[in-house]
TrEMBL record:
Protein name: 3-methyladenine DNA glycosylase/8-oxoguanine DNA glycosylase
Keywords from the named record: DNA damage, DNA repair
This protein's record includes keyword Chloroplast: no
Any one GO cellular component localisation term in the record: protein-DNA complex
Record has Transmembrane as a keyword: no
GO terms, molecular function: alkylated DNA binding; DNA-3-methyladenine glycosylase activity; DNA-7-methylguanine glycosylase activity
Phylogenetic placement of the source organism: Bacteria, Bacillati, Actinomycetota, Actinomycetes, Geodermatophilales
GO biological process assignments: base-excision repair, AP site formation; DNA alkylation repair
Region entry Disordered, spans: 294-313
Length: 313
């Protein structure tokens, strides 16, 4: 990866380029980090470049990631521009080791593995950025969680540094989250249980960020020691922040049935899902990503679950 740190008066503050050795699909690589098409932290422009905001140890940053032929060109703005710009290859999967994965003999997994050379598990190295949206997604519909995420960014997020697309924001700091009042949370549509969990993680956020010695089990133990944080939320965080190839989001409303229907042609529960995934232990989350992208789900026969509007309660 070639890089250049530019003078402070120059925009952008950081520029670099990198050439992946696999057929990178930028949108698919960043898909786990996007909360709806209107996500204020991740946008795409007409040229196909991704604009992503992030917190860093040095402060907020905006990164523009532009695919040009087989090269990725990186530009970044803000106090954390250098740190964030240098993390982009890891975001897109450069640290992943898919060569250690054995698809086994299940015909669907074998086929998906062969037809998805683009699949890499990225790691951001930022716990807080993954934890806040995961808390907002606890026990609610995706539509509802994404709406609250956008409302939170508009209410408390920092303006994104750089010449960004309109409306982009950086996730608010832990202190800013703690400063949000109950009535403001109510206007965002956040219920009491998720509000308490978010305040709990904000209170210990400085002690949760990734250290070089962290592994996924250790980080999950730290996360689940915080009131309101369970195994599902911890799994969602380590998948994104550490690029964990194995930890499965147990407790997900839909995931168990996607896995069950894809691998066995039937619905199942969480224990059944883990039993079906056991042959791929060490890469169970990788298999789940394959199945979500190319597997199947049981037909929907019941009424849709309408989101709860907590702003009217």
């Amino acid at each position: 990866m070639s890089t250049a740190v530019l003078p402070a008066a120059t925009s952008p503050a950081y520029e670099g380029s990198w050439r992946p050795d696999w057929p990178l699909d930028l949108r698919r690589a960043l898909f786990p980090h996007q909360r709806s098409a209107g996500d204020p932290t991740l946008r795409y422009d007409a040229a196909g470049a991704a604009w992503r905001t992030t917190t860093t140890p040095e402060g907020p940053a905006t990164v523009r990631i532009t695919p040009v032929a087989r090269e990725i060109r990186i530009a970044a703005w803000g106090p954390g521009a250098v740190w964030a710009g240098r993390q982009v290859p890891a975001w897109l999967g450069a640290d992943d080791r898919p060569e250690t994965f054995d698809p086994g003999t299940h015909p669907l997994v074998v086929r998906l593995h062969r037809t998805m050379p683009w699949l890499r598990l990225g790691r951001t190295g930022r716990i807080w950025d993954a934890l806040v949206p995961a808390v907002l997604e606890q026990k609610v519909t995706v539509v509802e969680a994404h709406r609250v995420w956008r409302e939170l960014l508009r209410l408390a997020g920092e303006p994104a540094p750089g010449p960004v697309p309109d409306g982009m924001r950086v996730i608010p700091s832990a202190q800013r989250v703690l400063d949000v009042t109950d009535w403001q949370w109510h206007r965002c549509g956040l219920d009491g249980a998720r509000r308490r969990a978010l305040r709990a993680v904000a209170s210990v956020a400085s002690r949760l960020e990734v250290a070089d010695t962290y592994d996924s089990p250790a980080l999950q133990r730290r996360l689940t020691s915080v009131p309101g944080i369970g195994v599902w939320t911890a799994a969602e965080v380590v998948q994104r922040a550490l690029g964990d190839p194995d930890t499965v989001s147990v407790g997900d409303y839909h995931l168990k049935n996607i896995v069950g229907w894809s691998l066995a042609g039937r619905k199942t529960d969480d224990d059944g899902m883990l039993e079906l995934l056991e042959p791929w232990r060490g890469h169970r989350h990788r298999v789940v990503r394959m199945l979500v992208a190319g597997g199947s789900a049981p037909p929907r026969r019941g009424p849709r679950n309408a989101p709860t509007n907590y702003r009217r309660i």
